[in-house]
Structures are given as structure tokens and as C-alpha cells.
Amino acid sequence: MLVRELVDRFEQFAPKTWAEPGDPVGLQLGSLDAEVHKVLVTLDVRPEVVEEAIQVGADFIFAHHPMVFHPAKNLDLAVPQNQMYATLLKHDITVYGAHTNLDSAPGGMNDWLAAALDLQNVRGLVPSGGSTATPAITMGRVGDLAEPTSVMTFAEHCKTVFNVPGLRLISHTPDAVVKRVAVLGGSGGPFYQAAIDHGADVYVTGDISYHPAHDMIAAALNVIDPGHHIESICKPHLTQLFQDWAAENHWPITVVASQLNTDPFTFI
Fold it and tell me: Please, are residues 114 and 141 in contact by the beta-carbon 8 Å criterion?
């Protein structure tokens, strides 16, 4: 089969036009008319992931994070990113990225995160900025816990759920009661007011910086930052989704999830 057959089906699930303005989603390298036999699903496209793709015989990498966020200024192969592009071309590996369109898709990234936290009565957090998104298409989710708990206990629960060795808790009231939780995968700091507007007691998101953290505390919002890498939850979910589509459509492909941890941070 051709890459475009899988891409066309995926873009029914999460159209590119649901991506936030300027987000470089879609085909990253290669051709939609290339043949695909084995798909490697990953969060990030890094040199070690490309080597993994070569080792497992994948000819298509499907990533959540776009590989090309910033255009190359030259093709100097001494630059690791450029060498990675060259390696992909040499091995005829096509790369596709689905970022904020997957974040907003019903049944996509933020629903997977909300389900992992066992949230109930789930609804959208912020409207998608995508050009064709309807009001029902939203980034982030907000929902209720089955049983109230404390901020600190819930933070410990997040460590377990997302399998992280540490996280950052932004709170002056760790003993406060948590009933409603907002979650947004990736860098959700700019959207914390939406969590407040929805009555969330805790906001779970990544990449919170220093001054916004002060603003969150001043607004009496408890925030849990387990990092950006929790979006790796997409790997098993996308793998299963593609396997289901392959079975339904009799596609002669194999789909596997990357086994690598691409989190650049280590807690010491």
C-alpha cells in the first residue's frame, strides 16, 4: 500500500486543518506515494529513533512531534539534524508528523491523557485554533475525579500514571482538596486561565516556566508539571489505532511502537 492511504485515513480522524496556526504538521520528509510495509510510531524523531527504524525495517515513521520545526539553513552533514535527514533519505524512510491536530482530535491525545487520569464528565478545555475546527474541537480536557483527594496525593498519582521519576508541583496549598482536574499535553502554560475558568482545582501540563508559575500561584491554581514527555502515551494508542484500521481495510502493513525513551531530561 501507499503512505497516502494511511495518511488519508488518519486525516479523517485528525485533519491537518485542526492544527494550531503555524504548526508544521503533515508530511515531513519523503513521498506520500512511497510504498509502506512497516510503520514505526514515535513521539519524537531523533537520530536514535531513525536508527531504531532502520533496525526494525520500518519504511514509515509516524510521529506526534513534527521533525522539522525550524527550516534547515544549509545541508551541512556535520549538523546532526541534517545528517538525520540524509540517513532517512538514504534508507527511503518517509516521515509524517501529527501534532496539535492530534491534540485536539476527539479520541486523540488529550482524551488519552484524561482517561489515564480516570477523569469523569470530561469536556473540552480551550477551543482549537484550527482553520476548520468547530466549537466541539478543543485542546485539553477537564473532568472530575471519582473521589476527592489532596493536591499532594494527586501529584503522587500523576507520577505513577505517567511513569515519571519526578515532577514539579506549583502550589502553596498541597493539602487542598482536588475534585476537578484540567489536563493539556505538551506546553500548556499559556492556557492556565481556561483551567481556572472551568473551575479546575489542579491543572496538569508541561513546560511551565518561572514567571507564569508565580502567576498561577497568585491565581490560587495548583499546577502539576510532569513534563512534555508524558505525550509518549500516544505510542500505544496510535499503534492500536493503525492496527485496527489495517485489519478493517486489509492493509498489508505491520505497525510497531518505538521502544525508546526520548525524554531529554534526567532527574538526579
Answer: yes
